[in-house]
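A.,

Following up on our hallway conversation. Structure tokens first:
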């Protein structure tokens, strides 16, 4: 079976790496002009001329990137199975549609309003009560196109900084920590949930994911599963879906979802019985899903901007290195290291030991390292 992947970055690369043992072949379709998958067949097509060619070479289509035109996905879906469905893509591209769907499915969100001018942004900040976070409705990711307003008078400056005709204004959530749940749904509707991961960001970029999230109460995992299951079934979704959440004193609050494998699920490559990548390939190929149980505890450390001392990391007996074959550039995701351990105490020690060889890594901070 040949799987066509829209997008050709490191997520596509890792999908292919997990699909080869199942005898899948891969054709990547890249619209950026800068593919980095580095394996499989890659069609670079900045003007959409080779879409038919792509389609003729594949049996199924999936994505590793959600910022691509929905009409392209719809066009493809008329000829070949496209998983997840284009509607999932459409919802994830628009924060207003996404938060509306969350509300319809009973998934808690921060209180929110839409603003289409500096004046309406100020009015929304007054109604919701500051601090608020304003985010462009479309095209935002990793904290880009966003501004925090500490008081309504900052509306004009924030509006100009975001530079978008429509923004969503959200009440600022005082969260304990950021977490995510990854789930997978098969063609037959079977669903499996990975344990929730705890995520630490630095300068808007994910740095550490610990899974299973330490100290998580079982009902929190159950709530997250209920929320993501609602989304999977509503969208008749096939493949891996990620839901990013805030954990607060009053339970979970949803931030956003991604219709694909996710950076906060890279720990599953060695840390779970079946990785998120293999499970996505299984799902979109119509196979049964694999076991999602964790093997011990894990932490994923992202390698950002510079590679650090790779040789020393390779010497660590508990570290699994994954490199994406990309050039160094500030803020760029170049690879990750998965650290496995039998318990959290051992995990903290191992993560710190490894992070010293990654000079770009911020100090390891998590619920395991901060008391109270
Ligand atoms: P996003 O692009 O929506 O994932 O937001 C990027 C980051 O901004 C999140 O990972 C949070 O750290 C922070 N953030 C976003 N929305 C809120 C909110 N309503 N309250 C508090 N922090 C937020």
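Then the amino acids I'd put at each of the 372 positions:
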């Amino acid at each position: 079976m040949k799987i066509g992947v829209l997008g050709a970055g490191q997520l596509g690369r890792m999908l292919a790496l997990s699909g080869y043992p199942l005898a899948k072949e891969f054709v990547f379709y890249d619209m950026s002009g800068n593919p980095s998958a580095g394996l499989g067949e890659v069609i670079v097509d900045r003007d959409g001329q080779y879409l038919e060619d792509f389609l003729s070479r594949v049996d199924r289509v999936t994505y590793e990137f959600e910022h691509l035109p929905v009409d392209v996905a719809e066009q493809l879906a008329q000829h070949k199975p496209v998983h997840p469905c284009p509607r999932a893509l459409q919802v994830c591209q628009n924060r207003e549609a996404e938060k509306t769907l969350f509300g319809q499915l009973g998934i808690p969100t921060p209180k929110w309003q839409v603003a289409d001018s500096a004046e309406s942004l100020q009015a929304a900040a007054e109604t919701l009560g500051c601090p608020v976070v304003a985010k462009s409705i479309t095209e935002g990711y990793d904290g880009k196109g966003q501004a925090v307003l500490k008081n309504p008078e900052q509306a004009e400056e924030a509006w100009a900084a975001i530079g978008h005709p429509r923004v969503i204004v959200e009440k600022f959530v005082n969260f304990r920590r950021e977490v995510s749940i990854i789930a997978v749904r098969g063609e037959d509707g079977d669903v499996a949930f990975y344990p929730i991961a705890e995520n630490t960001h630095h300068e808007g970029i994910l740095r550490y994911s610990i899974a299973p999230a330490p100290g998580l109460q079982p009902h929190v995992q159950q709530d997250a599963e209920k929320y993501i299951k609602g989304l999977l079934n509503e969208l008749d979704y096939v493949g891996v879906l990620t839901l990013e959440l805030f954990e607060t004193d009053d339970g979970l609050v949803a931030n956003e979802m991604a219709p694909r494998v996710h950076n906060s699920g890279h720990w599953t490559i060695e840390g779970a019985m079946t990785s998120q990548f293999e499970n996505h390939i299984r799902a979109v190929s119509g196979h049964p899903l694999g076991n999602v149980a964790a093997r011990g505890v894990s932490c994923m450390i992202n390698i950002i901007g510079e590679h650090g001392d790779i040789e020393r990391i390779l010497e660590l007996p508990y570290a699994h290195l994954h490199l994406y074959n990309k050039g160094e550039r500030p803020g760029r995701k170049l690879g990750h290291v998965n650290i496995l351990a039998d318990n959290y105490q051992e995990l903290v020690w191992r993560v710190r030991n490894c992070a010293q060889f990654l000079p770009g890594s911020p100090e390891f901070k998590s619920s395991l390292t901060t008391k109270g």
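The CA atoms of residues 139 and 204 lie 15 Å apart. Curious whether your intuition agrees with the design.

B.
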